[in-house]
């Protein structure tokens, strides 16, 4: 019996792609941590994601409600539900994410992106995460919620606390901090819901209240958007800069022809996806690629591995701007397909347009990056860049 492969060693987190290649050779197998079942080939990942009856999302919420946390509405958010409950909720929230909402937000998103790009380029030496990649989605989500601008920083703080819950064995003091964050979030969202109920407008919460959702359902949905809408978009922007620092010719091409930016974003989403995997629980014994996975197992569908699968993406380990976009799984697949995909693509496009129109080039100020220690979200925790202003 060979040793189980481990998704969580520092080397793998720094560069998971060699391990993914190894996993695709034994496409369904148990891995560390915890003996989860890793699924790594494109077709198998699609099978898992499109079949909520056998691969359930319900139950995963448990990791967001550890014994030291009496209440956490995130555990009941949309992404943790199965049909028919998921189908009902999703049909009620989808229209808040339509094209009209995005067109309404676009000028404000562009203005935020331009302000952040001006300030970053003026400073030249920046931590790209702290000064651009993070404030952009945090301020956009703030706008989307219809919160006061000053709340953007709190949103980021809440997002950090929420994503730390499943992985952590926190000290009593840290537990208290996280409980405090959740209470603060709940007070903030309750006040927002009450305000919009009294004076409906055309923003997200008013739109949600027009559907037949209970107060608790609106609350859980808003809680779920905080981690979903911030961290992944931060890493999309950051991963784009990391990939471009390794592909200077592509940077030149995109700077000369900004119409290539949407292609750049799609290829970064395939080559270095911010969402590396999705978790599911098997509801019965399942056979996949000839391997039997027992009922009640945790399955990790490795999107990052599936998008390097040669049978789907020829020259998969190469970053190719000319690649025609082919059924990306970066925003998931099937019933849980990301509701914010259009918003995330818009934020990334406007952010990169604002930045590239102001710089003549940039360089990474550090060889070794400190990558996120998560099997779900991948990106650098800090990204020191030198930005050369355009002459
Ligand atoms: C680059 C940025 C983003 C990436 C890579 C991303 C990725 C994903 C993925 C992979 C899923 C499916 C999870 C699963 O199947 O278990 C998902 C679901 C979701 N995402 Fe995103 N996301 C991004 C940005 C956003 C934004 C900006 C928002 C909203 C403000 C958002 C809201 C959601 C919601 C509500 C769901 C749950 C949908 C459902 O369960 O029906 N996402 N996202």
Automatic annotation (TrEMBL):
Q: Which domain of life is it from?
A: Bacteria
Q: Which UniProt keywords apply?
A: Heme, Iron, Metal-binding, Monooxygenase, Oxidoreductase
Q: Which family does it belong to?
A: Belongs to the cytochrome P450 family.
What Gene3D superfamilies would the database entry show?
A: Cytochrome P450
Which PANTHER family does the entry link to? P450, PUTATIVE (EUROFUNG)-RELATED, PULCHERRIMINIC ACID SYNTHASE
What is this protein's record name?
Answer: Cytochrome P450 hydroxylase
Question: Could you state a single Gene Ontology molecular function term?
Answer: heme binding
């Amino acid at each position: 019996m060979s040793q189980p492969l481990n998704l969580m060693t520092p080397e793998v987190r720094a560069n998971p792609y060699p391990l993914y290649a190894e996993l695709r050779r034994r496409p369904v197998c148990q891995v560390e941590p915890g003996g989860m079942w890793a699924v790594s080939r494109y077709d198998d990942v699609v099978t898992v994601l499109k079949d909520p009856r056998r691969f359930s999302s319900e139950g995963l919420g448990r990791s967001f409600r550890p014994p030291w946390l009496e209440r956490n509405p995130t555990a009941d958010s949309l992404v943790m539900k199965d049909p028919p409950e998921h189908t009902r909720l999703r049909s009620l929230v989808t229209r808040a994410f339509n094209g009209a909402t995005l067109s309404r937000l676009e000028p404000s998103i562009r203005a935020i992106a331009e302000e952040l790009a001006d300030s970053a380029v003026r400073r030249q030496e920046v931590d790209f995460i702290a000064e651009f990649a993070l404030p952009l989605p945090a301020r956009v989500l703030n706008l989307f919620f219809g919160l006061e601008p000053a709340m953007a920083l709190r949103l980021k703080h809440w997002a950090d606390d929420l994503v730390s819950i499943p992985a952590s064995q926190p000290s009593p003091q840290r537990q208290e901090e996280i409980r405090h964050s959740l209470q603060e979030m709940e007070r903030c969202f309750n006040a927002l819901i009450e305000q919009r109920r009294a004076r409906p407008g055309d923003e997200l919460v008013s739109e949600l209240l027009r559907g037949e959702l209970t107060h608790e359902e609106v609350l859980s949905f808003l809680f779920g958007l905080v981690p979903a809408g911030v961290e992944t978009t931060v890493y999309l922007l950051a991963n784009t800069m990391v990939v471009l620092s390794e592909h200077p010719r592509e940077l030149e091409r995109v700077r000369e022809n900004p119409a290539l930016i949407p292609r750049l974003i799609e290829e970064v989403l395939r080559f270095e996806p911010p969402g590396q995997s999705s978790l599911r629980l098997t509801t019965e014994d399942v056979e996949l690629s000839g391997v039997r996975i027992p009922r009640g197992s945790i399955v990790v569908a490795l999107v990052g591995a599936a998008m390097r699968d040669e049978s789907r993406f020829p020259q998969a380990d190469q970053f190719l701007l000319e690649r025609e976009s082919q059924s990306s799984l970066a925003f998931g697949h099937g019933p849980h397909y990301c509701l914010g995909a259009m918003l995330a693509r818009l934020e990334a496009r406007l952010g990169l347009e604002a930045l590239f129109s102001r710089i003549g080039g940039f360089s990474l100020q550090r060889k070794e990056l400190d990558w996120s220690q998560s099997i779900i979200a991948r990106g650098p925790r800090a990204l020191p860049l030198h930005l050369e202003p355009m002459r």
